[in-house]
Specification:
Layout: H1 3-14, E1 18-24, E2 29-34, H2 35-51, E3 59-63, H3 70-79, E4 83-86, H4 93-103, E5 107-111, H5 115-121, E6 130-134, E7 145-146, H6 147-152, E8 168-175, E9 181-187, H7 188-202, E10 209-212, H8 219-229, E11 234-238, H9 243-252, E12 257-260, H10 262-273, E13 289-293, H11 299-308, E14 313-320, E15 325-330, E16 344-345, E17 350-354, E18 367-372, E19 379-380, H12 384-390, E20 391-392, E21 395-404, E22 410-415, E23 420-422, E24 425-427, H13 429-437, E25 442-452, E26 456-465, H14 473-479, E27 491-494, H15 507-514
Parallel strand pairs: 1-11, 3-4, 3-5, 5-6, 6-7, 10-11, 10-12, 12-13, 13-14, 26-27
Antiparallel strand pairs: 1-2, 8-9, 9-19, 14-15, 15-16, 17-18, 18-21, 20-21, 21-22, 23-24, 25-26
Helix pairs in contact: 1-2, 2-3, 4-5, 7-8, 10-11
Length: about 525
């Protein structure tokens, strides 16, 4: 069943029940909508898009932070038969421009935080005919129509566009180690399958309530919510990650399931340990499951969590955008004795550990993890070369090095690529290297990941200063203020940058020298 049909079914069966709740604790705001309203808003968006010329096979950009409007817009785009293009809200204007051009998008939904981004690039986006602004009227730019007016122009009745399971549904932009975005093309079949995988793994039923904290553009957050969608269970969208706000939402909304990133789980534990939070002030009686994904999970974190919350179920989720988010491998609720492993194949998934020739590696030996199942992407859109590199006879090469133990559990050992994962977000070293290389006193630079208990990894810059020049840590920090905060090096090391005979940086040597990961 298409996920758009799941929404329609929920509206028929549970129309007056709450579907989505938005909490904005910093402003003391709370909003909610029912399944019927959710469904009707999606229909209105679809009809309004069709009226401005968007048609099946087109693409529509979705650049917004988490809010109550996010999912109705997403489903409305899908109901036109167009592909939805959710963009990472950390992308700079140039990256946004690249993505919109690759997608050849015809319309563009933007939140209030991205007016400047859109204004910078809009004159270069020749295919985009309409911008829709989601935010306060007083902040609406003159080049965009208001969301309320756009919504009102559409019919609440489904447009009844014929959509098949294997039609294109979404373009999710990821990036390789060069930092250039690649568009992962997902089908409606991929999205449907993600619903059943998540529900099979975490056993959501109609009375469950999922707390969504990570950004919805990320496949992880949305595909975990899909487990609730398939059974008509509600969800809470929390705008903010303070431990107190998380526990207040869990308590006041009677949440049963939350998916956390490692830093947020650590923050909760630290707040409890420091007595900034007193658990007896919250009603957490319905909270049954905490699970984590998007980055390596320290076993010590899970062990400490179980001490504080002994009755909680726990799961580790492994996945990629290219396999429709999390769940191709997962630990499993019953496998606490294997904490540290990423787990076993998920529902209807197969795995292999392969050598450099793509032959099966002997049991226990390290190789590249490959996965196969209905969640594997259709292709990298407009990038056949990159597609051929990772898709082999239906198998997706993940780029992650792993081994499999005698019980069939997969343990990640290394990452084939140099991507640094900090707090669940990918950082591409070459972007930071290129930025720092432009400093007039920098001779050479390499960026590696250093282990960090809270964030998984932090970016560290090894800087070789030009002969006769001087450079201080404070000067580098000040220079890097022009980078997004999460990309700024957390550690700066002044040293020679070793390169091999072909000019490549010897990053394994640097990791060995400075205790880096991988």
């Amino acid at each position: 069943m298409l996920i758009t049909e799941m929404l329609a079914r929920n509206a028929r069966m549970y129309g007056d029940e709450i579907a989505l709740i938005e909490r904005e604790p910093a402003r003391g705001k709370r909003k909610e909508i029912t399944w019927k309203t959710f469904d009707e808003q999606a229909n209105r968006i679809a009809d309004a898009l069709l009226k401005i010329g968007v048609k099946k096979g087109d693409a529509v950009v979705h650049l917004m932070k988490n809010c109550l409007e996010w999912l109705p817009i997403y489903f409305g785009i899908l109901r036109t038969g167009a592909s939805v293009v959710p963009l990472n809200f950390r992308f700079d204007p140039l990256a946004v421009k690249r993505c919109v051009e690759i997608a050849d998008a015809k319309a563009f939904f933007l939140g209030k935080e991205f007016v400047e981004h859109a204004d910078i690039v809009r004159n270069d986006l020749k295919a985009v005919t309409s911008f829709v602004f989601v935010g306060p009227e007083e902040m609406r730019p003159n080049f965009a129509e208001s969301y309320e007016a756009f919504l009102d122009s559409g019919s609440p009745v489904s447009p009844q566009i014929q959509i098949d399971l294997f039609d294109n549904a979404g373009l999710y932009f990821t990036s390789g180690t060069t930092g250039n975005p690649k568009a992962v093309l997902l089908t409606h079949r991929n999205l449907e399958f993600a619903c059943y995988v998540e529900n099979s793994h975490h056993h959501q039923i109609h009375c469950d309530n999922f707390l969504c904290i990570p950004p919805l553009y990320h496949t992880g957050a949305k595909m975990h919510w899909f487990g609730n969608l398939v059974v008509g269970a509600k969800a809470v969208i929390l705008k903010g990650v303070e431990p107190k706000w998380i526990l207040e939402a869990m308590s006041e909304e009677q949440v049963t399931i939350v998916w956390l990133l490692v830093p947020w789980a650590l923050d909760i534990l630290f707040a409890i340990e420091n007595q900034d939070i007193h658990l007896d002030e919250y009603d957490l009686s319905r909270w049954r499951l905490m699970h984590i994904g998007a980055q390596p999970v320290p076993p010590s974190l899970v062990q400490e969590w179980k001490k504080v919350f002994p009755h909680h179920q726990y799961d580790t989720n492994y996945g990629l955008t290219e396999c429709t988010g999390p769940g191709c491998v997962h630990l499993g609720l019953e496998n606490m004795h294997k904490v540290g492993a990423i787990g076993i194949p998920g529902l209807d998934w197969e795995i292999r550990i392969v050598d450099s020739n793509l032959n099966q590696a002997p049991l226990g030996e390290v190789g590249e993890l490959a996965v196969k199942g209905p969640g594997v992407m259709k292709e990298y859109f407009k990038n056949p070369k990159a597609t051929e590199e990772v898709l082999q006879d239906g198998w997706l090469l993940t780029g992650d090095m792993a081994r499999q133990d005698e019980d069939g559990f997969v343990w990640l050992v290394d990452r084939k690529k140099d991507v640094i994962i900090t707090g669940g977000e990918n950082i591409f070293p070459v972007e930071i290297e290129s930025f720092l290389q432009a400093h007039p006193r920098v001779q050479d630079v390499a960026v590696i990941g250093l282990p960090n208990e809270r964030l998984g990894e932090i970016p560290a810059a090894v800087i070789q200063i030009k002969q006769g020049q001087e450079l201080t840590h404070e000067a580098v920090d000040d220079y890097c203020r022009n980078l997004p905060r999460y990309k700024r090096p957390r550690s700066v090391i002044f040293a020679e940058v070793p390169r091999n005979a072909t000019g490549k940086i010897e990053k394994p040597m640097l990791r060995k020298l400075y205790g880096g990961t991988r």
